[in-house]
Amino acid sequence: MSFHNGPITKALMIGIGVNTLAAGAFQYKHFFRLQLVPHITKHHQFWRLLSYQLAFPNSSNLFITQIILYNASIALERIFGSRKFGSFVFVSSFVSTCLTVVSMMVATSFGVNTSFSGPISLLFSILYSYSRTVPSAYRYSIMGATFTDKTPMYLLALLMALSTPPESLILSVIGLLAGAACRSDMLPFKAYRLPNWVNQLASKLRPLIGSTEPGFRPVSAVPESGLGSGQAGDAQGTANAGDPSLGTDLTSGVAAPTAATPRTPTQEEIAQLTAMFPAATRAQILNALGSTTSIEAAVERLIQ
């Protein structure tokens, strides 16, 4: 997997990583923490409503977040598209901040002054949409219990939710609620899109995060080291001359490629892709499944 068609996710991973490492190295962690008392009510430091979601207080949460974002957020962004995914991140962060303030007010009424730090709510909001949008690629059983390829990410998210209770647990619940609100048809958040000037600004700043294109993979045969192209071809032809099953082209000394047998997709895979891509024809879906080795690869083929 690469960052192809995932520039927002790459920017999130770089931004959160740089902020967390810089805050720890230069002792600025206290600027990325939010408390209702005294930060908001007494000192009126409203900028903390934004800064508390920009960095984690420890490197362990950062490590777990980078793993989850790389595996879940990229797949979700490829399905949504960068503009819709960026709008989802903005709305989810806004809703999470509002719910966080409400939770702090409720806790203060009971005499508890809570302190929050880290984009945990955003991470769980992305995980909620990922679980509802991206289908599981495979299932497996261990001692009678059935798991999917998503299970390791859910376990890592559970570790984060229990890392610094009760604050981390509250932020996790807030993130799930924000993710549900962004997907609800009864609320206006689902149809919101960032204005065009934001997209144009993001396009100009995109070179700052580097390329998101996948690396080049050569498809031509490379001669062995120490042999010229003619010598490598002669050696290959001599080694395989007596074995007709290898399909050797004796005129060039290079093994001739054999046609790959397309796999037969299951009805479950066809139904999953039909639900995810209602605009795609059945022929396009069958072609994507038949020319790839997994349903995830077929999803990437249809997105491209």
Main CATH class of the largest domain: Mainly Alpha
Specify Rg, calculated over alpha carbons: 25 Å
Task: Classify the fold: give the CATH topology of the largest domain.
Answer: Rhomboid-like fold
Helix content: 55-70%
Count of individual helical segments: 13
What do we call the CATH homologous superfamily of the largest domain? Rhomboid-like
GO cellular component, one term: membrane
Domain Peptidase S54 rhomboid: 44-180
Region (Disordered): 220-265
Keywords: Membrane, Transmembrane, Transmembrane helix
Please supply descriptive tags for the structure shown above.
304 residues; 56% helix
Describe, in plain words, how this protein is organized in 3D.
The protein is mainly alpha-helical. It folds into 2 domains: 203 residues, Rhomboid-like (Rhomboid-like fold); 37 residues. It contains 13 helices and 6 strands. The strands form 3 sheets. The protein has a two-stranded antiparallel sheet. A two-stranded antiparallel sheet has the order 3-4. A hairpin with a 2-residue loop joins strand 3 and strand 4. Helix 4 crosses helix 5 and helix 4 packs across helix 7. It starts with 6 loop residues before the first helix and ends with a helix. About 11% of the residues have low confidence. Pfam families: Rhomboid. One of its GO terms (cellular component) is membrane. It is found in: Membrane.
